[in-house]
Every structure is written in structure tokens, then in C-alpha cells.
């Protein structure tokens, strides 16, 4: 394992995902500044997800066919520039454009990053993915508290400070050679794909896995988008409280990511996903049904278990598509999360018509639906079982 390369990739993941975590925390202030409806505000997340997630499979395809390692330094820079200029947006159109640019940085970094990490890792892919995921989730957790802090002290223009880490990490990538590792041509990795019953089974399992990730992503993005509104607009709490809740939720998810990979490698990938999805719904309901410290504890536990299976589902996806690691990464981390992001607009419509609490309550059911979608997945794939038995 090339730990120097992994450390640099983790740092790039951290900087890239700071911007992802910060965007939802800015939404209540943008809504007030431009007098937007909940639906229009949630559509900012939709535009971000269209460029950050839905088009990721395109970058995954490029990654599988050609060497596009240069995307690794470019991704964090684009993500930071888009979010940095967000606070300068004088109209709704400009806000959507800057959110889309930030999303493009996300889309360009992740497939190449996960493919490189996969090729650097050994058999315990979930464990290595969990370490790589740690950087992204740590950035995701830091983002909301930084966004709230910058706004409180500098207003919306405080978003410009997010450009600094993007420039710094890009400079490091350009100066340090560790990430310029070379691998064999993509076409020669793995055995030829055979159109057998096991191949068709892998395809159907991949489709179900994508559905699982869509529902899990819809849960996380729904919480990220509407928990700030719930505290600020419905409970009339201080904006810093909302930022702290989101950051604690995401920090807990970071701990969950580190623990989830090794646990999945030891006890089974599918079992890990099922258990965490079931517990997520229970903890989210208890968060909503309680108050004060108890509510924060349950919200923290929800973050711990909900996000802990991210690296596990990525490892499962790559085992279903061993010849197309970039595409598998793009489908799971990109396309699936992007489709999940569409739910924020639907939840925004619910919030406009029935209130923010109703939108939040819907998110508590989504992990249960993901649990039901995960149950019939055949894992490990037949070709993997056959290879292990030889």
C-alpha cells in the first residue's frame, strides 16, 4: 500500500467535500437574502447534484478508458471556486451557476480518486475505502460549522474563504509526485465479462444496490437541507445551533466510516449495510420525538450508523463491476447520490405545502425502504465466491 499517495488523496477528498458540507448550511441565509421559496432553495441542491453526482459516471467512463489522473488536482480547485463565489451571487441564476461549478469539481475528483485508491489497496477494500472516505466525511462535517462561522462574522461574502484550501491542495498536488502512480492499461484488468446467469445476477444486484444508495443519499441530503430550516425557522433557534447539529451528525458519520469498513470486512458487507439502515430509521425517529441533549444524542447515533456503510457499498459495487472501477465509483458515489439529491426538491415542495416537520418525517422512512431494497441483493457475487473456492 502506497501510504503517501493515499494520504494525499485523503487530503484532496477532505478539501473537495468541505464544499459539499458547507453548501446546505448557506441555504437559509441565501433564502432570506433573495426571498426564495423552500422549493427554489432546495433546487440549489438539485443543481449542485446534477453536476456533482448525476454526471459522475461520465467521468468514471473516461477514467476507465484513458488516463485522466490530472482530474485529481483540478477537482478540489473547481469545487472550492464554485462555493467561494456563491456568496457573491446577486441573483438566483448566479447562485445556481456557482453551485453547478462547485458540483463539477466534485464530479471530476471522486471517480478517479476511488479508482486510484482501489488499485492501491489489497483484499480489504472496505477498510481502505473507509480510510479514504474518512477524509471526505471529515470535510463534509467541517463544512457546515465553517459556513455558519464565516456567515456570522463576514456575511455571505465569507464564502470566499473556501477558495483558500482549494488553491493550497491544488498547489500541493502539482508539487508532490506521490499521486502520479501508474497502473496497467484498463482493458487488461480482470477477466473478460461473460454473459452468464451470474453476470445477469450481478447486474440485477447492482441495480438494487444503486437503489439502496439513492434512498440512503436522499436521507442524508434531506437531513442536511431541512434540519437547518427546522431549527432556525420552526424552532426559532440560533443558526449556530443548526450548524453544530449538522457538524456533530457528520463528525459521527466520520467515526462510523472508520469503523464501518473494518467491521464489514470482518462480519460481511451485506449484513453491515442491513443493520445500519435499520438502526438509522429508529434513531432518526427518536431524534425527532425527543428534545435537548437526548435529541442530539439520537441525531449523533443516526449519523454514526447511516454514513458508516458508504465504503461498504462502494466495495460491493466494484465487486459487481471489476473491469470498470471508475464507472462503478461514478454510479454509486455520483449517479446514485445525484438521484437521491432530486429528493430535496420534492421535500422542498412538501415543506412549502405541509411544513418543514413533515418533510423531515419523510426522511425517517427512507432508510427502511433502503433496507427492503438491500435484502434480495446476492452478495458476494458468484464469480467472487467461485474465485475464493479455487
What does this protein structure show overall?
With 390 residues, the chain is an all-alpha fold. It has a single domain, classed as MFS general substrate transporter like domains (Growth Hormone, Chain: A). 81% of the residues lie in helices and 0% in strands. The protein is built from 15 helices and no strands.
Brief summary of the model shown:
The chain has helices at residues 3-34, 38-54, 56-65, 71-84, 92-120, 125-154, 163-175, 197-234, 239-267, 269-289, 292-306, 310-320, 325-354, 356-374, 382-389.
What name does CATH use for the topology? Growth Hormone, Chain: A
Indicate the percent of residues in helices: over 70%
Number of domains: 1
In the CATH scheme, the class would be Mainly Alpha
**Approximate shape:** globular
Structure characteristics:
disordered C terminus, Growth Hormone, Chain: A, 390 residues, single chain, globular
Helix-strand blueprint:
Blueprint: H1 3-34, H2 38-54, H3 56-65, H4 71-84, H5 92-120, H6 125-154, H7 163-175, H8 197-234, H9 239-267, H10 269-289, H11 292-306, H12 310-320, H13 325-354, H14 356-374, H15 382-389
Amino acid at each position: 500500500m502506497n501510504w503517501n499517495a493515499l494520504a494525499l488523496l485523503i487530503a484532496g477528498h477532505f478539501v473537495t467535500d468541505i464544499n459539499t458540507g458547507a453548501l446546505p448550511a448557506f441555504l437559509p441565509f441565501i433564502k432570506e437574502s433573495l426571498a426564495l421559496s423552500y422549493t427554489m432553495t432546495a433546487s440549489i441542491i438539485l443543481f449542485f447534484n446534477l453536476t456533482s453526482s448525476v454526471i459522475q459516471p461520465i467521468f468514471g467512463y473516461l477514467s476507465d478508458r484513458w488516463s485522466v489522473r490530472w482530474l485529481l488536482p483540478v477537482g478540489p480547485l473547481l469545487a472550492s471556486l464554485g462555493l467561494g463565489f456563491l456568496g457573491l451571487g446577486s441573483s438566483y441564476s448566479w447562485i445556481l451557476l456557482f453551485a453547478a461549478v462547485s458540483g463539477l469539481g466534485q464530479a471530476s475528483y471522486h471517480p478517479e480518486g476511488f479508482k486510484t485508491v482501489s488499485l492501491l489497496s489489497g483484499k480489504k477494500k472496505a477498510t481502505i475505502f473507509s480510510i479514504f472516505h474518512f477524509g471526505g466525511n471529515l470535510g463534509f462535517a467541517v463544512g457546515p460549522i465553517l459556513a455558519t462561522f464565516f456567515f456570522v462574522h463576514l456575511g455571505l461574502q465569507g464564502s470566499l474563504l473556501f477558495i483558500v484550501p482549494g488553491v493550497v491542495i491544488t498547489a500541493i498536488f502539482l508539487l508532490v509526485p506521490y499521486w502520479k502512480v501508474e497502473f496497467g492499461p484498463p482493458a487488461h484488468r480482470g477477466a473478460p465479462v461473460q454473459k452468464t446467469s451470474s453476470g445477469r445476477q450481478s447486474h440485477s444486484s447492482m441495480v438494487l444496490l444503486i437503489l439502496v444508495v439513492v434512498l440512503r443519499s436522499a436521507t442524508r441530503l434531506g437531513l442536511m437541507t431541512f434540519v437547518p430550516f427546522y431549527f432556525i425557522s420552526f424552532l426559532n433557534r440560533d443558526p449556530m445551533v443548526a450548524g453544530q447539529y449538522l457538524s456533530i451528525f457528520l463528525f459521527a458519520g466520520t467515526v462510523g466510516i472508520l469503523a464501518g469498513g473494518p467491521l464489514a470486512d470482518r462480519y460481511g458487507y451485506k449484513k453491515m449495510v442491513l443493520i445500519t439502515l435499520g438502526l438509522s430509521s429508529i434513531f432518526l425517529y427518536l431524534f425527532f420525538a425527543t428534545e435537548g441533549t437526548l435529541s442530539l444524542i439520537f441525531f449523533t447515533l443516526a449519523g454514526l450508523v447511516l454514513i458508516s456503510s458508504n465504503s461498504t457499498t462502494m466495495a460491493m459495487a466494484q465487486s459487481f463491476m471489476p473491469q470498470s472501477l471508475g464507472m462503478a465509483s461514478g454510479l454509486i458515489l455520483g449517479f446514485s447520490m445525484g438521484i437521491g439529491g432530486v429528493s430535496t426538491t420534492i421535500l422542498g415542495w412538501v415543506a412549502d405545502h405541509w411544513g418543514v416537520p413533515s418533510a423531515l418525517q419523510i426522511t425517517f422512512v427512507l432508510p427502511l425502504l433502503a433496507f427492503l431494497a438491500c435484502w434480495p441483493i446476492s452478495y458476494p457475487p458468484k464469480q467472487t465466491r467461485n474465485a475464493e473456492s479455487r
